[in-house]
Amino acid sequence: MSKYFYHGLDSPGLVIKILKEGIKAKRLQGYQTSHNYNGLDYISLCSKRPDSFYTHNPLCAYPHYIYQHFVLIISGDIPAIKPIIVSPLVAYQELLKDDSLTPYSDMEDEYQVLNYIKPEAIIGIGIPFAKLKKKCFFKKTRQLLEETRTLLLLAQSLDLDIVDTSTFDFVEQYEEAKALDKHVTLSLNI
Fold this sequence. Notes:
Layout: E1 5-9, H1 12-21, E2 23-24, E3 42-46, H2 51-56, H3 61-66, E4 70-74, E5 84-85, H4 92-96, E6 104-105, E7 110-114, E8 116-117, E9 122-127, H5 129-135, H6 142-157, E10 161-164, H7 170-179
Parallel strand pairs: 5-6, 9-10
Antiparallel strand pairs: 1-4, 2-8, 3-7, 4-9
Helix pairs in contact: 1-6
């Protein structure tokens, strides 16, 4: 298990918003229904396991939501809970219908946090630079690139670590640098 938690997102615009406001569970965002194991009250996080774990456990958060995504790196000091792991064949609607606060997941490397993660708990960001470089030939990605530049500037102004999520072992590289008490920043042109 890694020393930090990771939360994946699909766009730099969402990362920018969260860096300012924190991560809110769906209920706090005004949603009335949920279509996943988090329900309305939990936020999903990933704690990276050794690479060999993912060879034998294909249904995990890291390869699907962290690797090659925009990522928030979150302090390991937050009150994260290991959810009850259930088979992916168990319908989340059945588990959540009693509206209890019991956390469930079908992903072995998932942890959850109740309601809210404050911005101060975010210590870094990850950006899928290789994926962005492949997309930069299309005009429709201009907004994506502009938002990514804005995100980089904001992360630098907040003195956050910045990593490239393009390689599967980026977490190990990051955590090795942090163990040496290094601030991690990439200087990449996009």
